[in-house]
Amino acid sequence: MEKKATITDVAREVGVSKTTISRYLNGSFEFMSDKTRQRIEAVIKELNYVPNSVARTLKSKRSMLIGVVVNTLRYQVAAQTVTGIHGVCTKNGYGTVVCCSDDDPDKELQGIQLCLNQQVDGLIIIPCLESPQRYLELCQQGIPVVLCTRRIQDWPYGCVYVRHDELITSMLVHLKEQGFEKVRFLQDVNNFHKNAMADAFQKGAEYLFSMPPEESVVLIGREGSLVPEALEQFLLEYPGRRKAVCAVNTHTLFLVLKELERRQIQIPWDLGVCGYDAQGWSELVYPGISSIRQPMDQIGITAGEKMIRCLQEGGMSQGHTALEGTLAFRRSTRQSDP
Amino acid sequence: MEKKATITDVAREVGVSKTTISRYLNGSFEFMSDKTRQRIEAVIKELNYVPNSVARTLKSKRSMLIGVVVNTLRYQVAAQTVTGIHGVCTKNGYGTVVCCSDDDPDKELQGIQLCLNQQVDGLIIIPCLESPQRYLELCQQGIPVVLCTRRIQDWPYGCVYVRHDELITSMLVHLKEQGFEKVRFLQDVNNFHKNAMADAFQKGAEYLFSMPPEESVVLIGREGSLVPEALEQFLLEYPGRRKAVCAVNTHTLFLVLKELERRQIQIPWDLGVCGYDAQGWSELVYPGISSIRQPMDQIGITAGEKMIRCLQEGGMSQGHTALEGTLAFRRSTRQSDP
DNA sequence: GTGAAAGCGCTAACAT
DNA sequence: ATGTTAGCGCTTTCAC
Q: Is residue B2 part of a domain?
């Protein structure tokens, strides 16, 4: 367990000052003799020297680290986004510090602070707060921030999101076309992002199905424990009408399908079903479940690229990028043939 | 954009030396007057002072950071493990630096080095190499290492894994009992972990089904592009015999089911199907797919706890923990009733 | 009980 | 082309 070599060791061995070594490390060999350069190169290899980035960060205020604060890693959705971010960062020589907020504002703050404390050069956040204030303050401190996945009003810097309102509206139009008469959105928790989705749903349901807002959305809880009740109730409501539910995320969709199978509800006869699906399994579930899919990895990649760009150019991140999701219409929302 | 307060600011404001503040920060108030302590407390709050952990790390060689190097984040499996690790670390005041190896030994090394460079206090790794050497060297450098998910021979320190051989064997016994006569394991890539699983399958297939090893396993590629061919071939082989396939992971299982649906193959009549499933969707796919499930979050939690413990006690990580996976036998591997 | 002083390993003026 | 010097913000002997 030999001590790791430091810049001093290298300097001594080469016979120059630390400054010269530091210059070499930072790529300013413009005014450096070829001989010195080669000598340094050799000694570094020989001593197996790796610059200590903690010391480097302390002095230079640049850590080559990017902070990533996400709501969760548990589900495919965020994990893939992180994968995308991570890939881009690594490719550009940046490391990542990943924190989870669990959609708790306090935890989010802790995560952000942990990152700041590590002197991250930038922050990519899936925000759990609707108000941009907290994130704006970061920018005022000079830390570039890219927001992703969730859309925040009045955010003047870079962000990447998916147009859920369009996706949801298209799905509603499809349901209408297929002859459904009443619809219900199964929302798990009350956060601004899910609320925005529910909102789009309510608007569409009001316009297309003449449903009052309070009738088109139901909350089923973080773990989806209320899914059975929610379904039971919707099945009893509007007797004789053709009804369809839309699940807010993969997990909810899964629970819905499980419950419907348990109760032997016939899809789409007794009930039409659609929802967000990150994995594609909905395609395989009888009779083929219509789904909404977001390009998660693309969100991550785009967010990462935005961050890298603004880091290279200096300044804040820029530009809102709206990514397209995709809809798959399958037999679970067809009223025609089984 | 006010400058962040430093220990010097606090010391000046309180009217003591940096040393005293440092003592306060490190919790050695034993020899400190109550008055001083309270005064410091107040000033810290007033100045909104947060100790700079980079400086702290540089001096003390402890970063309160744990490095996590996983093969991927793309899939549920690893992402949940990371979630588990992250939760435990955060709870104990540690941050995490996450790196992906993509199962590439070079990238893994890069990840490890990035972590070391950030002076992580410990490393939790899903190893992509079968040989313990690289990981042992870390320990020799004094960095505690916990290996997880994949089992490495001759690893004397802490590790957490699942007994895949038992799970696979049980599944094979089940297949035998259900009257299947030939089986095939669909492996995606050739790494030591997947090979160990394939190995267990081959052993079991030889013993229970009298199949030579080369007949019981087939490689279908990282993206599973060979799934159609593999299935086609297996369906043609052993005419008249009852056959079943077992997929090495969720993605492969998904592809298998998709292809079988496309070809209108009747499960389990034409072919029995089972495999690893991380999400539970297999339950919903007709006719109910038998599955193997690993307790991913538990792996992460256990690994995290092992790390924390050895960090608190000083010394290396200890103990092999084998976690139990779970089997679900469903109609996709029943020969009796549909 | 508290403080002075010497760094940790590196960078960045400012020389030369 | 290269070196001198003064720190970054903190910890840690050792001294009082």
A: no
3-state secondary structure of A338: coil
Determine the 3-state secondary structure of A188 from DSSP.
Answer: coil
Q: Using an 8 Å CB-CB cutoff, list chain A residues near B98.
A: 82, 86, 96-98
Greatest Cα pair distance in chain A: 90
**A17-31, A265-279, B63-77, B101-115: lowest mean pLDDT where?**
A17-31
Q: Is A158 a member of any domain?
A: yes
**Residue whose CA is minimally distant from C13 C1':** A19
Overall pTM surpassing 0.90 (yes/no): yes
Assess contact for B43 and B9: CB atoms under 8 A: no
Secondary structure class of A291 (helix, strand, coil): strand
Q: Which nucleotides of C are covered by protein (CB under 7 A)?
A: 1-13
Please judge whether B284 and A100 are an interchain contact, meaning their C-beta atoms are less than 8 angstroms apart: no
| Å: A10 CA to D5 C1' | 19
- CA B13 to C1' C5 (Å) is 21
Helices (H) and strands (E) in chain B, counts: 13, 12
Residue B338, domain member (yes or no): no
CB atoms within 10 A of CB B161: 20
C-alpha span between A123 and A145 (Å, rounded): 5
pLDDT tens sequence across A232-253: 999 999 999 999 999 999 999 9
Q: Do A79 and B73 touch (CB under 8 A)?
A: yes
Task: Give the tens place of pLDDT for each residue, B30-74.
Answer: 667 788 888 888 888 988 888 999 999 988 888 999 999 999 988
pLDDT digits (tens, 9 = 90+) for B244-286: 999 999 999 999 999 999 999 999 999 999 999 998 999 999 9
Q: What is the CATH number of the domain that holds B69?
A: 3.40.50.2300
Distance CA(B176)–CA(B201), nearest Å, equals 13
Residue type at position B83: T
